[in-house]
Each structure stands twice: as C-alpha cells, then as structure tokens.
Amino acid sequence: MAKKVVTLGEILLRLSTPDKKRFVQSESFDAIYGGAEANVAVALANFGLDSYFVTKLPDNPLGDSAVNYIRRYGVKTDYIARGGKRVGIYFLEKGTSVRPSKVVYDRAASSITKINVDDFDFIEIFKDVEWFHFSGITPALGENCIRFIQKAVEVAKALKIPISVDLNYRKGLWSKKEFEKVMIPLIQGVDVCIGWLSSVEEVATTGIEDFTSKDLDKERFIKIFSRMRKKFNIKYITTTLRENYSASKNGLSAIIYDGNELHESKKYTFHIEDRVGGGDAFASGLLYKLIKGEDCKEALEFGVAASVLKHTISGDFNLSTEAEITELLNGNTSGSVQR
Amino acid sequence: MAKKVVTLGEILLRLSTPDKKRFVQSESFDAIYGGAEANVAVALANFGLDSYFVTKLPDNPLGDSAVNYIRRYGVKTDYIARGGKRVGIYFLEKGTSVRPSKVVYDRAASSITKINVDDFDFIEIFKDVEWFHFSGITPALGENCIRFIQKAVEVAKALKIPISVDLNYRKGLWSKKEFEKVMIPLIQGVDVCIGWLSSVEEVATTGIEDFTSKDLDKERFIKIFSRMRKKFNIKYITTTLRENYSASKNGLSAIIYDGNELHESKKYTFHIEDRVGGGDAFASGLLYKLIKGEDCKEALEFGVAASVLKHTISGDFNLSTEAEITELLNGNTSGSVQR
Amino acid sequence: MAKKVVTLGEILLRLSTPDKKRFVQSESFDAIYGGAEANVAVALANFGLDSYFVTKLPDNPLGDSAVNYIRRYGVKTDYIARGGKRVGIYFLEKGTSVRPSKVVYDRAASSITKINVDDFDFIEIFKDVEWFHFSGITPALGENCIRFIQKAVEVAKALKIPISVDLNYRKGLWSKKEFEKVMIPLIQGVDVCIGWLSSVEEVATTGIEDFTSKDLDKERFIKIFSRMRKKFNIKYITTTLRENYSASKNGLSAIIYDGNELHESKKYTFHIEDRVGGGDAFASGLLYKLIKGEDCKEALEFGVAASVLKHTISGDFNLSTEAEITELLNGNTSGSVQR
Amino acid sequence: MAKKVVTLGEILLRLSTPDKKRFVQSESFDAIYGGAEANVAVALANFGLDSYFVTKLPDNPLGDSAVNYIRRYGVKTDYIARGGKRVGIYFLEKGTSVRPSKVVYDRAASSITKINVDDFDFIEIFKDVEWFHFSGITPALGENCIRFIQKAVEVAKALKIPISVDLNYRKGLWSKKEFEKVMIPLIQGVDVCIGWLSSVEEVATTGIEDFTSKDLDKERFIKIFSRMRKKFNIKYITTTLRENYSASKNGLSAIIYDGNELHESKKYTFHIEDRVGGGDAFASGLLYKLIKGEDCKEALEFGVAASVLKHTISGDFNLSTEAEITELLNGNTSGSVQR
Amino acid sequence: MAKKVVTLGEILLRLSTPDKKRFVQSESFDAIYGGAEANVAVALANFGLDSYFVTKLPDNPLGDSAVNYIRRYGVKTDYIARGGKRVGIYFLEKGTSVRPSKVVYDRAASSITKINVDDFDFIEIFKDVEWFHFSGITPALGENCIRFIQKAVEVAKALKIPISVDLNYRKGLWSKKEFEKVMIPLIQGVDVCIGWLSSVEEVATTGIEDFTSKDLDKERFIKIFSRMRKKFNIKYITTTLRENYSASKNGLSAIIYDGNELHESKKYTFHIEDRVGGGDAFASGLLYKLIKGEDCKEALEFGVAASVLKHTISGDFNLSTEAEITELLNGNTSGSVQR
Amino acid sequence: MAKKVVTLGEILLRLSTPDKKRFVQSESFDAIYGGAEANVAVALANFGLDSYFVTKLPDNPLGDSAVNYIRRYGVKTDYIARGGKRVGIYFLEKGTSVRPSKVVYDRAASSITKINVDDFDFIEIFKDVEWFHFSGITPALGENCIRFIQKAVEVAKALKIPISVDLNYRKGLWSKKEFEKVMIPLIQGVDVCIGWLSSVEEVATTGIEDFTSKDLDKERFIKIFSRMRKKFNIKYITTTLRENYSASKNGLSAIIYDGNELHESKKYTFHIEDRVGGGDAFASGLLYKLIKGEDCKEALEFGVAASVLKHTISGDFNLSTEAEITELLNGNTSGSVQR
User: Fold this and answer.
1) Are E248 and F308 inside 8 Å of each other by CB?
2) CB contact under 8 A, D334 and C101
C-alpha cells in the first residue's frame, strides 16, 4: 500500500506562448495547470505515493480542467473544495539565450483566496497521512489562506505528521516583514525547511530574494543554517544553488544541513527546455526519498538530479520516473537513444 | 479625409478552445482580443473611417497585445489610457450542432473598472468627431465606468456629435432595474438606439433578455418603438431578429423604426463559423451607412448583410469589406470561388 | 457517497488524422485513447459515479498514457493489470459529407489478449459494486478474454450485482456462430441487453450486422425482443435506431422493451463532429439513469440525448454533463451562446 | 503493365490560409502544389495508370518540392525540365457558408513561361503513350507555352495518340478572342473536349465564362454540342453542371454528347471541404474510364462521382480510389464508419 | 510628442518553414512580413518614436496584410502607396547547428519596382521629420526605385533632415560597380553610414561582400573609415563585427568612428533563435539613441545589445523594449525568470 | 543514366511526440516512415542514384502511406510486395539535454515478417544493379526474413553485384550467438562491412553492443579489422566513433580499414536536432562515393559529413544534397545565411 501524503496550495492556469514567442507576437497560448505545491503533489504521485492535493477551485469548466490535469498524473483530488469565482492565472513568455522568461501574474481574487477552514474535514484529510507539505506562497494570498494554513499545520502537528515547508518568499506578494511574521510560527518544529530567513543572519546584507550561490561560502551557510535549526527546532535545512548562465543554460547543485554536517550535492550543467518548477522538482525528489526513509545525503542527490531532469521537460511538472533520475544520478548524462 | 468616429468600451482577451474542443479537453487556447465596442471600432476602421477606440488597459505585455490587436486592423489607439492591473478575460468554448457555445467570464477588476475621467482629455478626443458610439455593457462595469460614460456622453451631446448606443443588457452584470436607472438618462436624444427597454411596454411579459423574434409581431414592435422614440427623443430604434436553429445554423434579419415606418430587412439563413460579434457587426454596418449619410433602410440592409458575413469569420471582428457585403446584399450567396 | 460501478474491456490507442485529412495525406495523428467499454466507464465517471475500469495494459509509457487518459476524466484505475507487450491501436480517418470515416484496426496480440484470471482479485473488485457492464467485443479477443469475462460474470451474478451487456457484434473479429456460442450463456439473466441476437428471429434475413432502422417495424421489434427477453430472462432489451444521411449528418432515436411495452424515444437530426463512441454514449446515459433508479423510459430518453451530444464532441468520450443532456432532452437545441 | 498517359501543364505552389481564416488574419499558410493538369496527372496515377507529367520548374528547393509532391502520389516526373526562376503561386482563402473562397494569383514569369520545345525529347515522351491530356490554361501563359503545346499536340496527333482537352477558359489570363484563335486548331480531331466554345452558338449571349446550368436546356445543349462536334471533328463533348448553393454546399451533375445522344448523369448534393480541383477530378474520372475502354455513359457517371468525392478532400487532388468512387456511384452516400 | 522619423524601402512576405524543417519536408509556411528597412521602422516605433514607413504595395489582401503587420507594431502607414501587382516574397529555411539557413528570393516585379515619384507628396511626408533612414537595397531594385530614392534624399537634404543609410550591398541584386555608381551621390553628407565602400581602400583585397571581422585590424579600420568620412563628408561610420560559430551560435560586437576615435563595443556570444534582421536591429538601436541625442559610444552599445536580443526573437523584428536592452547592456545575461 | 542500386529491409511507421514532449504528455504524434535500410535507400535516391527499395507492406492505407513517403524522395517502389497485416511501428520520445530519447518498438508480426521468396522476381530486381545493400536488422525479424535475405544475397553474389552490409546488431531482437550464426555466411566476400563481430577479437571483453570509441585504440582496431577482413574476405571494414556529450550534443568521426591502412576521418562536434538515422546517413554517404568510384578515404570523409548534417534534420532521412555535404566537409561550419 502506497504511503499517503498531503500537499496544500494553489493550482494556477498557466498560459504560455508557444515556440518561445514574445507575448506581443502570440495568437495562442499553451494551457496547462501548475503551481509550486501542485507540482510537488504531482511529482510525489508520479513516484508512486498516494498523493492528495488540497485546494479550492471554482465550480466551472476551468476548475474542472485543473482537477483533471493533476488527476491525470495520479494525484488524488477528493479533498479539493469547489467554490469562489476564478482560477488564478499566470502568463509565461518563455525566454531563450540572453532573453529571460517573463511571468505576468493574474491571480488576485482566485478561489483559494476565498478558502474557508469549514470547507474541509481535517480529521478525514490527515487520516493515515505520513507527510504534509506546504509552501510560503499560500499564506501570502491573504487572510483566509493564512487562517487555513494555520489550522492545517496545527492539526498536522497534533497528529505528529512529519512536515516540510518550502519558504518560497515572493516579494510581489508581501513584504519580508509580513512574511516572517506569518511564517515563523508555522515553521516551528517542521522536519524539512527549504530556504532560510534572512533575519537569522546577523549581517543584514544577504536576504532571500537576492541570493545567488556566489554570495555565500560554506562556513557562512553552516552558521546560518545551524542558527535557524536551533531557533526553530527544524531537522533539515536545505537549498538549491543555481548558476544562471543564460535562459537556456544553468548550473545546479544543492546543500542540506542535518545539524552535524553540511552536505553538498554533485553539480550539473545543462540546457533548459522549461525552467518553471525546477525548485519544486528538487523539493519533491528530496521529500520522496526522506519519506521512504533514506538518509538526507542520498535524498539531496536524488532531489538535485530530479530537478535537473525537470528542466528538460515542458510544463511545471517533473514527469521523470525514479529509474530515470537514478540513472542520471549514477552519472549517465550521455543522452544516448534508449531502445 | 476619412471621418473621425469614437467608440468607448472594454476590450477583453478572448481565450477560445481550438477545433471546437470542450474546455476539459483543451491544452491550448486561441488568443485574440475583442469586445462589443472594440468590435464596432474595428469594423468602422475596416470600412475606412478614422476610428478611435477609448479604453483603459494595464501597462504590461497583455495590455500591449490588446492595443496591437486593434491597431493592426486600423483602429487609432492614441486615446487609450494605460494603468490598472489586468486585462479582462473571457473564455470561449465554441459549440457546434446541438451543443451550444459556452462563455466563462473572468473580467472582474479589469483595468477599465479603474478608469478615471481625469485620465482623458475629452476636448482633444471629441475634436472633429462625426459619430460617437457606446454600449450598455460599459456602465455595467461599476461606478468608475458609469461616471466615465456619463462624462463622455455629456461632452458629446454638448458638441452636438451624433450618438449611437447598443443597449446590450447583460443580466450577469447587473439587474434590469439598475440598468434602466443608469441607461435612461444616457439614451436621451441619441440618434440610434439598438434594442429597447422592456419597461416601455405596458405588459411586462416581454423583456430584453428573453426576447426572440417569434415573441413579437410587427404591430407590437411599432407600438413599443414608437413609445420609446417619443419618450426618449431617439431618431432610430433598431434590433436584429435571430432564429437559432442550432449552434451551426441561424436565421437573421433586422428591423428599424424611423418614426414613420418599421422597415424590415431581407432574412438570411446561413451556417456559422463564429457567432460572437454578430450583433456588433450589425451595429457597425448600420452605423457606417448612417455616418455616410445613406438612408436608414439601406443602412439596415447593409447592417444585416454585414452581420451574416461576420458569422462566417473566426474571431470577434467583422473583417468583410464594403464590396463583399454589398455583393451579398445584392443576392450573391453562391459562394463560387472568386479568382 | 457515489455508487461504485465496474466496466471491463479493452482500451485502445486511437490515432486519427487531423482536419479530416485522408490517411495518405497526413503527417501527424491526433492520439487519444478509447474503446467501447472504456467510453462507458468515462461517461459514468463524468456523471459522478465511482467508476472503475478493468483491463490489462503493457508496463510501458504507452500503457501509462492510456491509464492517465481515463484517470484524467475521473475513472478509477486501481484494478488495471500491467503486462503484455502492446496497446491495441486503431487508426481513424474521419470522413465528411459523402466520404465515410475509415477505421484500420491494429489490435492483434495486445495486452488484454494475455489477460489472466489470476491477475485480478474479484472479491476486491466487486466489493460494494452496484452495477457491472461489459460488451461483446472483449470475448471476441480470444480464449484468455473469454475465460476472463466468464469468471467476471460468474462472480457478479453470484454477488447479485445488476449487469448490462452491449452485444456489439463485430464481424471482423469472429463469426456470428462463435459469437452466439460464447455470448448466450453470458447474457442469461442480465438486467440490460443492448442489441439482439439474429438467431431469435425465425426468419433469418435480419441479422445484427446488417440492420438499419428501416428494416424492422414496431410489431416485429416487439416479437423479437419479447422472445429474447423470455428465452434469456433479461429485464430490458434496447437498441438505437440510426439514420445515416451522410458522414456529417445523422438521425437518431432508440427503443427499449420492458416486457410490457416498446418505448420509443424522441428522434433527433444533427450534424456530426465525431461519430465514434455514439453508441457507447447511449449505453452510458441509459445505464446511468437506471443505476440511479429512474424508470426505463426516462433512461431511454436520457441515453439518446447523451448520444446526440456525444456526436458533437471530438474523441471517443461523451464529456457532456447531466445538466447539458437534460437541457437538450427538454428541447433546447438552439445552440445559443451560454454566458 | 499499366497504360502510359501523358499530361502537360503548370504546377503551382498553393498557399492557403488554415482553418478558413481570412488572408488578413492568417500568420501561416498550408503549402501544397497543384494545378488543373497536375491534378489530372495525380488522379490518373492514383487510379493505377503509368502517369507522366510534363512541365518546367526552377532548379531550386521549391521546384524540388513540387516534383516531390506529385511523385509522392505516384506521378512519373522523368520528363520535367528544370530551369527558369520561379514556381507560380496561388494564394487561396477558403470560404465557408455565404463567404466565397478567394484566389489571388501570383504566377507571372513562372518557369513554365520560359518553356522551350528544345528542352524535351517528344519521341521519348510519347513512346507507347495511350492518352494525352492538356488544358486551355497552358497556352494562356504566353508565346513559349503556345509553341510548346502546339508541338506536343502535333506529335501526339502524328502518333495517333488519343487526346483530351479541358478548355478551361480563364478570363484573367486572356481574351475570348485570343483564346479561340489559339485553341481552335488545337482541338481539331481530339477525342474528348471538356467545355465548349461560345462562338459556335449563333446567339452570342451565352459564353463559357458566364455559364450556369440554368442557362441552357437540353435541346440547346444538343444543338451546340452537335455543331461543335461536326465543326471540329471531336468524338465526345462533355461538361459538368454545377449548382452553387453556398461555399459549403453544391449540387453537381454532368452531360456528355457522343453524336447520337446527350447522356445526363445522376445529380449529387453535398457539403464541401475543398472545392478546388473539382473539375479536374471529373475530367480524370471520365478519362480513366474511357482509357480503360468503358463506354462514355459509364465514364460520365464515374467522373461525376469522382468529382463529388474530391469536394470532401483537402487539397487540389482527388485521392479517392476506384473502389470508393464506385461505391458512391452505386448509391452508398450514408457515410457509415467503415471498419 | 514623439519625434517623427521616416524610413523607406520594401516590405516582403517572409515564408519560413516551421520547426527548422527543410524546404522539401514542409507542408506549411509561417507567414510574416519584413525587410531591412521595415525592420528599422518597426523597431523605432517600438521604442516610442512616431515612425512612418514609405513603400508601395499591391491593392490586394496580401498588400493589406503587409500594411497590417507593421501597423500592429505601431508603424504609421499613412504614406504607403497602393498599386502594382505583387508583394515580393522571400522563402526562408531556418538552419540549425552546422546546417545554414537558406533564403530563396522571389521578389522580381514586386509593387515597389513600379514605384513612382508622383505617387507621393514629399512635402507632407517630410514635414516635421527628425530623421530619415534608407538602405542600399532599395535602389538595387531598378530604375524606378533609384529615381524615387534620389528624390527622397534630395528633399530630405534640402530640409536639413538628418539621414542614415545602411549600405547593405547584395551581390545577388547588382554588381559592386553599379552599386557604387548609384550610392556614392546618395551618401554624400549623411549623418550615419553603416558599412563602407571597398573602393575607398587602396589595396583591393577587402570588399564589403566578403568581409569578416578577422580580416581587419583596428588600424586598418581607422584608415578606411577616416578616408571615407572625409571623402563623403559623413559624421559617423559604423559596422557590426560578427563571428559565425554555427547557425545556432554567434559572437557580435560593433565599431563606430566619429572622426576622432574608433569606439569598440562590448562583445556578446549567444545562441540564436532567428538571425534574420539582426543587422537591422543594430541599426535601429543605434539610430534611436542618436535621434534621442545621446553620444555615439552609448548609441553603439545600445545598438549591439539590441541586435543580440533580436537574435533571440522569431521573425524579422526586434520587439525588445528599451528597458530590456538596457538591462542586457548593463550586464544581466543570466536569463533568470522575471516575475 | 543514373546507376541502379537495391536496398532491402523494413520500413516502419515512426510516431514521435512533438516539441520534445514526453510520451505521457503528448496528445499527438508526428507520423513519418523510416528504418535503417529505407533511410539508406532514400539518401542514395537523394544523391541522384536510381534507388530501389525492396520490402513487404500491407495492402491498406498505411502501407500506401509508407510507399508514398519514400516515393516522394525519389525511391523507386516497383519491387515492394503488398500483403500481410500490419506496418511495424516505433514510438519515439525525443530527448534533450541530459534526458535521453526513448524508443518503444511495436514491430512484431509486421508484413515483412511474412515475406516470401516467391513474392519477388530476383532476376528482374537485380537486372543492371550496381550495388546491393542490406543490414543485420532484417534477418533478426524471423525465419521468413532470413530465408529471403539469404536468397537475395545468393543471387547478388552470383551476379557479382557489389554488396554492403551494416551489421546493426540489436540485442532486443536476437542473441549475439544467433546473430553470428546467421550473419557470418551472409558477409562472406562482401565489399563493405559496417561494424565488426566481437567474436573475431580474442579477448572477449569488447562486443558490438557495448562499444564506445574510448574502448579501443588504433592498434586494436587494426588487429580486429585485419583479422575480420581476412577471415571473411571483405574489402572494407568501417565504423563510426560517436561521443555522446548529451542528447543535444555529440562528437562524431569514423574509421575505415582497406587492408593496408586504417583511415581516420575528421571529427565534428555539433548540436542535434534528430539523432535517429545518423548511422544510416554515414552508410549512405560512404556507399554513394564508393559506388561513384571514389577512394575509400574520400568516401569516409563524405560519409561522416553526411551523418553530421543528418543530425540537424528532423526525421530519419538525410535530405542533404551532395553540394551541402561537400561544403561542410570543406570546413564551412559557420552556418551563415545562404542567400
């Protein structure tokens, strides 16, 4: 019997221009659905877990399409509430070479912003659950979402369900101050925290939003992660380290701190087909291995290889299998035709 | 020198499923821009008039795309204000045969709802203008839009510019009571009113929203139109009469009342490629001929033939030329290849 | 809690030429998945039932895609066995006007032909099931399939689960003699039989494969259905009556015999977008209403209206909602835009 | 061994807007190759004859593509000369319903206008040939083409090869006077002439270019055809009779005069997918049966049924098989799915 | 009020194979419009200038489409004459990796070759103009074009309008001798000349058509440019320096000589989406900054960055904004997603 | 008169996901036809030889499409037998970057496996033939194919026709032991053998299936090739050496041994559009030059350059011209636009 896991967040309609066209050139959009937390839910289902996604979607054909889109990839949608007026949208212009991708958000007043604790039966949702995952984007969507996530975290903690959180600070949605005020109580005692709070660093120069891997040396990471671990009683703190050569080419590795050691993964350099969801692929790869009980170093390597493969796949989702990720992780980057 | 005309309203992003797919089947949308008033502005430009469209659009690439989309077909966009957060959207699932087309609106909080009288220089806009057109949809979009349209109508009337209004009552946007309260002062003294108010009929059984041509006989129309004409001091009252055989086949004719006579147009039966914008094509065909100074009976016939041709064209816009419409009007419905 | 229903059969990869191209013109295929029984399973899920589909598919990415394709539309795929070498394929050239559609089957040696009774836990599958549906196509696929369907029917009957069968005789797969030999024991005592056996008619001129509605008058139908009902102890016998005007236009009605009366449905004439799956849409509409406990006459009307709407939808599946079918059934065939 | 036939003429690049878009809407063109005579050559190859097409095409990748396009459908391209600067082009906007299709020609100065008698070895080309076909379009393309066609006809007549000509008068290319001056010597003694000369009629009111089937009664046809037959010593004179209901729906029949009797074919009414090449499909169906030695009445029926099926196929070519045409001719217009 | 600028030249229909297909594989073409001078006009409009394009186009739907295509991107088309028979065409097969792109021109006898000085009111066109741009391609199109461009340059010089010329020598259109004979009088006294004449170099080894940046050292450039500057009284002479690594990867920088110094820009290495129009993007970026009054060194850097971004955009046009170019110019080549 | 060459083997329907989508994402397939030997036949026709392809295909529209697909590119299809039930299929998911391409074969029981010596007139087929090519894939398809290839080789040897064989060992189809048992008699005395048998190496560590260019040094190659040459009396033994950097980037060179010397070609590094058919492009380039009588070193260089260009072309076929390959071979890898 597959392990039951629960992820909570928003799923958006993604409208991207085809063939790397600019917005002003395009007379059609590729239409799929995705979002930081939905991407994790799909990847976990794809790895074979019994993966439930919790959200609120309008009771119209676009809401139906969003449900179908993740159901297709194996996510259980039984706990999705229906109501509100609209599916949040993000428009994506895929970049290439020195031209960056552009995202235009149109997510205000989406159904999840009308989410209500009473729409859900938490006892039912969290029954037999072996992992709960959420991100810092959901509470940025307003008071209803904050109350909802607080309730969910409270119940999960009460039931001693392992919890992971991807901080995912988005400066377009709220200030760093609001962010920390809401997030700090939520991350208390979680098992895995992806990202860190800039406020735990004494010197205020390095924040979340303007971080690149060149900014921090290993010693500094250990100091920050160690302080954060203690302060919030978190088991693992982890982050990816990305090098942006161009919109078509990136380098990627990751680190995880377990209290004793800062483990560093292998680093990959690769061409990019679709960059969106790369971080979520890392999160889901890492979590999958931790849920299976493997140690954090192996989970880290699996997460990074998963993320790299995601970059070669169109759409938000990492549709790689465990076998494919393992093959990449074992060093086969040759791309030979597999017959 | 072409005559200058001004149309005011919202332009929406239209996202329609390709190949008559249902919403839940589609993984892409055809993306164009349209809306009742923009459709009129484009058709008038296409007939050769110096056609200006006034609206408010966000200062982002989607706003740019909307501007470009009508500029391409010759509309002058100099008076479009930029600001607000979003382009209104409507999703369209094209029906066929006995399956009706479906529209899902997602237009709340669009940029035009933030429109402000002070964003515009009415003296400049209405300078040398020979016709002004608006519709009953715009004031349904909220207080800002009502104030804006009131100001525009006030200036146009002061400058003695001929005015046309397409009542376009949409029950999803406001109640009939709100509608009449706002619209009645606006239609006082206009030259052309498309549609009629149900309240002018003594017997309350026939309203705008549930009207079909079978419901009214000629005598009744004359009574209603005549009463309305006198009450509001309107020169012409007109409406199309549609027969819905299926999503693929319709019948269409129209009537106009000039105070003396109720003129009835020829009736056409035809297959449908895209029904959206059919009413706007009628309005613009009729207005074009009235602006050119032709008599209302000829204008009516031209409007109906224009509308019929529109139904054979994908998208919201009537991209037929005057010559093509005239040929249809003269009886050539053979569809022979033109070499 | 939705009622649990089980359908059993093959799901095929359907490769159809786009834009009504002929096979020899086409350089791409639209690729979806469907099949007589899968189409019923999807429609029942779409109506809100807890619909399980039982089959065998290869453990490769095409097998995954077939699973995903029905999961997307809500079908439960927990009981699908994986194994064998290939997904059966049918190539479809969509006809139009006087040019008929053409199907080229390439389904020999597909995974379902390797199906094995021991791959399945029937006690688990039929637990709490309120309806079981199968068709005459599955046993035509060979000995393994015959044994499998015999076992399934045996268990379902033992558990007193209502059963429906769509005879679906396909002369390309087996002879009428083989067909009757296998099917007669299977249909003993079922609740609903769609189609009839030509052998129950004394005069041998009218068989299943060459039937058109013009061939039989009402009296004759009553005689055949009544004889069949008694002989095999079947509750309802039903069939659609189709009039083929062209590949683009059909007439459709249906009849059902309940032992007392031969009920005839309304007849529809309509244009066709995709004819494949029209019969399965009738079956699933009829079954849905019977499962819900409505009487056979209402079920018949719903089934026919469901089938008509299916013809307006691309692909094998009827993706109409109950509300849409009911609206058509109530006489709204106008195709007006629904806003 | 298949019979060798030779057709001579121009093959053009056809650029048509997809999805019935108008020219001003389209950002892509479907690109195929066709032309009155090439269409006949392809259909004859498709029926199994050893069909050679003679023309001149530029020695560039577009010329290569034109060669490949007919080679794909079985035409022998050994006698195509390469040279000149350009492939002629025609732009096609497909109409629908009351909106007619539009053709914009861009064929001036194409390679065939530079054709030279010395580019070809007529002894080799006409060796063992059992039929030669040309049309009145080729000599309209200028002096080189006239000289070329004169030479070809001269050699074919000397070798006693049966000849057919499709008059195909195009008023955009030359005057009726020039047309008759050039064509009359060419049609002397041919076996089949499709169309007739208006000058053979005493009363000058009815010409080729403005003919519709309503204009002539049977008696009049017999008079004209009989006069023409005698004057030019032609075996069969034939023409299609088309009724244009709309761009989507036509009626079609044909007549042939053999000196004794005016045979009239069955008449079909049908929906249209692509009207271009409908006349050429008639010609090739008729010629195919005459080449096979069948009588003119059967050939006529086959030609009309071939033409009707062509109207259901995209592109210029009739890709129907003999069996399909025969089935239609035998009355099966039901469009039932063929499995 | 935006500054008015005028560009003069031909706009061609560009038919390119999709998905990097070879000509012989493709059954469709992407259809856009472009050309050296039109590309400059669009870029200048895109930067916010009041940009007019002057040309002649046929009065048919393809001419309409060409007008619409640039109007969409903001170009003013008031001064475009309509007449002649055809839009010039160029067919493009996009290369990749070691396979070069191929262009097949089909532009002979296009409408611009029938251009006539009397079609235009130069007083009106050049009223309030602050910059005039043309290229060496237009006069290569024949006597009418030479006379036209001579008249335009004469009027512009008389009105003391700053002038820029892109030499754009095309060996397929005329000989270097004819080129110099026509161009030398035209470039006398212009403000900006892009490219140089090989005849100004004493040693005849380096010509325009076979130049690569490796062929010339800095000293040699200064000598050539200095001589040319004096001889023709030109303010700035400039050129891009391209390194062709493959069809997918190039290096690009540029130089400008102002009489005192040879300024060299930054050099970029980048992957290519569409190489066509790269030189025109440089020209328009440089001109835009000069028109705004910035110094030539800044204009040069802006021009090169504009050109680099163009290479990442499909089609002939540089649709980058000033802000995007500035960001690249400031060193951000990371391609990070912009949210 | 072009030289006649004969190639024998299977042609498969290739169904590939568009836009590098994964199988589970794709709702359409690009559909072309190819296969190791058909790819050689097309390339030889494309170089101008009189190239015949011998195979068996079903007598249905998919068989017709396969014939048409190679006929289009100039292959003579006169000797293709029709019969059997199905066209073999291979599904292709194109990889990119670190994600490899995946092939799913569905070729069992295809028509060629039913091939029969008596279906063919070998005297007619091999009349005037100047080269015969086959591969080790065909005899892997079963007893019928073995018997057929044995007969073909026997006749070709009797007629002293030069023979080439591409060993193409596929471990999915048969064991290495079966492979050697069948192939050794067939390769006796052939002119060209592409690949080598692992059994000729004393040390058993290096086999065909697990070879990469890093495994063998030059000395070792000479030893193996020399032994093989003598043992089987083969004129030339050759192989490509591939370096797989990723699915998007490869290195390629080749070696040939003529009994005296091991010639090594230039090595290319390049980006990949479509890797399938790269080996067949090498074979056909090499064979073409040998058939033309050029020496083996030049043939080797031409073969490698042909293969490199193939990698930039979508589909299985090398559609490069001799001139294009020669230009690459001469060092022009710049990818500059060719006008």
Assistant:
1) no
2) no
Number of Cβ within a 10 Å radius of residue B82: 15
A330 Cβ contact list (under 8 Å, min separation 6): none
- Count other Cβ atoms within 10 Å, centred on residue A109: 18
3-state helix/strand/coil string of chain B? CCCEEEEECCCEEEEECHHHCCHHHCCEEEEEEECHHHHHHHHHHHCCCEEEEECEECCCHHHHHHHHHHHHCCCECCCCEECCCCCCEEEEECCECCECCEEEEECCCCHHHHCCHHHCCHHHHCCCEEEEEEECCHHHHCHHHHHHHHHHHHHHHHCCCCEEEECCCCCCCCCHHHHHHHHHHHHCCCCEEECCCHHHCCCCCCCCCCCCHHHCCHHHHHHHHHHHHHHHCCCEEEEEEEEEEECCEEEEEEEEECCCCEEECCCEEEECCCCCCHHHHHHHHHHHHHHCCCCHHHHHHHHHHHHHHHCCCCCCCCCCCHHHHHHHHCCCCCCCCEC
F246/A309 CB distance under 8 A: no
Residues 155-184 on B with a CB inside 8 Å of C are 170, 172
Beta bridge mates, D81: D56
The beta strands (E) that lie in chain D are given as: 4-8, 12-16, 28-34, 50-54, 56-57, 81-82, 89-93, 102-106, 129-135, 163-166, 192-194, 236-246, 249-257, 262-264, 268-271
Q: DSSP characters for E165-223?
A: EE----TTTS-HHHHHHHHHHHHTT-SEEES--GGGSSSTT--STT--GGG--HHHHHH
Choose which CATH entry (3.40.1190.20, 3.40.50.12780, 3.40.350.10, 3.30.70.360) describes domain F4-329: 3.40.1190.20
CB atoms B337 and D275 under 8 Å: yes
Residues whose CB falls within 8 Å of the CB of residue F258, separated by 6 or more in sequence, listed in order: F235, F236, F296
Angle, vertex CA D172, rays to CA D170 and CA D175, nearest 5? 75
Which pLDDT does position C201 carry in this prediction? 53
Residue C71 near residue F24, CB atoms below 8 Å: no
pLDDT tens sequence across D72-91: 999 999 999 999 999 999 99
Give the separation between CA E299 and CA E283, rounded to whole angstroms: 10
For A276-324, how does the pLDDT look when each residue is reduced to its tens digit (9 = 90+)? 999 999 999 999 999 999 999 999 999 999 999 999 999 999 999 999 9
pLDDT greater than 80 at residue D211: no
All residues at 6 or more sequence positions from B176 whose CB lies less than 8 Å from its CB, including other chains = B169, B198, B207, B208, B209
- D74 shares contact with chain F (CB less than 8 Å): yes
The more confidently predicted of residues F206 and F281 is: F281
Look at the domain D4-328 and name its fold: UDP-N-acetylmuramoyl-L-alanine:D-glutamate ligase (3.40.1190)
Whether the CB-CB separation of D215 and D206 falls below 8 Å is answered with: yes
Q: Which among A17, A267, A329, A339 is the top mutation candidate for probing chain F, defined by the most F β-carbons within 10 Å of its own β-carbon?
A: A339
Q: Which residues of C touch B245 (CB under 8 A)?
A: 334-335
- Integer Cα distance of B190 and A85 in angstroms: 37
Query: What ipTM goes with this model?
Result: 0.94
Q: What is the Cα–Cα distance from E242 to E250, expressed in whole angstroms?
A: 7
Q: Are B93 and B69 in contact (CB under 8 A)?
A: no
pLDDT tens digit sequence for F244-261: 999 999 999 999 999 999
Taking an 8 Å cut-off on Cβ atoms, the answer to whether F18 and C28 are in contact is yes
pTM: 0.96
